[in-house]
């Protein structure tokens, strides 16, 4: 599914849940779809702040109280895992990411070899 359609789904869920201020992080790949389908939804029902891409994950997660994400494949559970580590509720399809410490990572690598 296209990234902008996933954004549309996430925004709609956030609005349905009562959020009036929505921050969008990342870069959309279809500006026409965004301007025609997502922007009117935001302009009519919520204040939107387009944040763009953020390299500083800690600063990004420090700006939100919940994350709405609709892609199963885009980040393979990375966003969900980051939310878990930051203590931020995640609203989206779960990829059930395993969060393990360095010892467990080493054990798993050792087992592979």
What does this structure look like?
- The protein is an alpha/beta fold.
- The protein has one domain (3-112): 3-Layer(aba) Sandwich (Rossmann fold).
- Helix content is 48%, strand content 13%.
- The chain has five helices and four strands.
- It is elongated, with a radius of gyration of 16 Å.
What does the secondary structure layout of this molecule look like, with pairings?
Elements: H1 3-16, E1 21-25, H2 31-45, E2 47-52, H3 57-61, E3 67-68, H4 78-86, E4 90-91, H5 102-112
Parallel strand pairs: 1-2, 3-4
Helix pairs in contact: 1-2
What would you say about this model in short?
It contains five helices and four strands; from the N terminus they run H-E-H-E-H-E-H-E-H. By secondary structure, it is an alpha/beta fold.
CATH class term: Alpha Beta
Q: Helical element count?
A: 5
In this structure, how is the largest beta sheet organized?
2 strands, parallel
The helix content is: 40-55%
- In whole angstroms, the N-to-C terminal distance is 36 Å
Task: Give the strand tally.
Answer: 4
Number of domains: 1
Q: What is the arithmetic mean of pLDDT? A: 80
The assigned CATH architecture is 3-Layer(aba) Sandwich
N-to-C SSE string, H for helix and E for strand: HEHEHEHEH
Biggest sheet strand line-up: 1-2
Q: Please indicate the percent range of residues in DSSP E strands (runs of 2 or more).
A: 5-15%
Gross geometry = elongated
How is the CATH topology named? Rossmann fold
Quickly give the structural class. alpha/beta
Low-confidence stretches: none
Radius of gyration: 16 Å
